[in-house]
Amino acid sequence: MTEEGTAERHRRRMRRQKEIVDARIARATQDCGVLVVNTGNGKGKSSSAFGMVARALGHGMKVAVVQFIKGGFATGEEAFFRRFPELEYHVMGEGFTWETQDADLDRRAAMAAWDKAAAFLADPSFDMVVLDELNIALKLRLVPLDLVLDALQNRPVHQHAVITGRGAPDELIEIADTVTEMRPVKHAFDAGIMAQKGVEL
């Protein structure tokens, strides 16, 4: 096939692709808050959520972040995002459960975090609420699932909610609008490389 024929075939294919994409865009007419769940055993769940926080702040939106479980060490995202007055940032965990080794302490911390999260989910002044590692708290039954589902389904109609953590329960996946499962392919830690600032910390 000539170069001209190849170019024409490409144009026809891209024209068909554009028609498909344009039709899908035309069907997407709802303007409302979405529930996003990032789960799976791979890296990137929280990183993706914080990318959405940056995007929301760029649009002048008001954002709240509540971190469950995490709390034993400082992170780059916390240091960065605390600079923004339109962002409420709360690290509420006592650290990883294998470090605390205290189920009652973990439960109290998780419920205190949930109380803070529930208040944000009920507050229409917040455009986005990120509940980092909530899935872990749900998996360990530190927070009752029915409370979470009720608050998410009754949040202000414009409010986006983003939930991270491995092991998202089926009931949460069912009500979510967007669900991404991160799958590990390869991780530096498995080769003995310690967690790095700017990548994991």
What does this structure look like?
It is built from eight helices and six strands; from the N terminus they run αβαβαβααβααβαβ. The N and C termini lie far apart (52 Å). The chain has 201 residues and is of the alpha/beta class. Helix 3 links the parallel strand 2 and strand 3. A six-stranded parallel β-sheet has the order 3-2-4-5-1-6, sandwiched between helices. Helix content is 44%, strand content 15%.
Quick summary of this structure?
Helices cover 44% and strands 15% of the residues. It has 201 residues and is of the alpha/beta class. It is globular.
Keywords:
6-stranded parallel beta sheet
Q: How would you describe the shape?
A: globular
Distance between the termini: 52 Å
Flag low-confidence runs.
none
Work out the strand percent. 15-25%
Mean pLDDT: 89
Radius of gyration: 20 Å
Helix content: 40-55%
Largest sheet: 6 strands, parallel
The number of distinct helices, counting runs of at least 4 residues, comes to 8
What is the string of helix and strand elements? HEHEHEHHEHHEHE
Class from secondary-structure proportions: alpha/beta
How do the strands and helices of this protein lay out in sequence?
Elements: H1 3-27, E1 35-40, H2 45-58, E2 63-67, H3 76-81, E3 87-91, H4 97-100, H5 103-121, E4 128-132, H6 134-139, H7 145-153, E5 160-164, H8 170-175, E6 178-182
Parallel strand pairs: 1-5, 1-6, 2-3, 2-4, 4-5
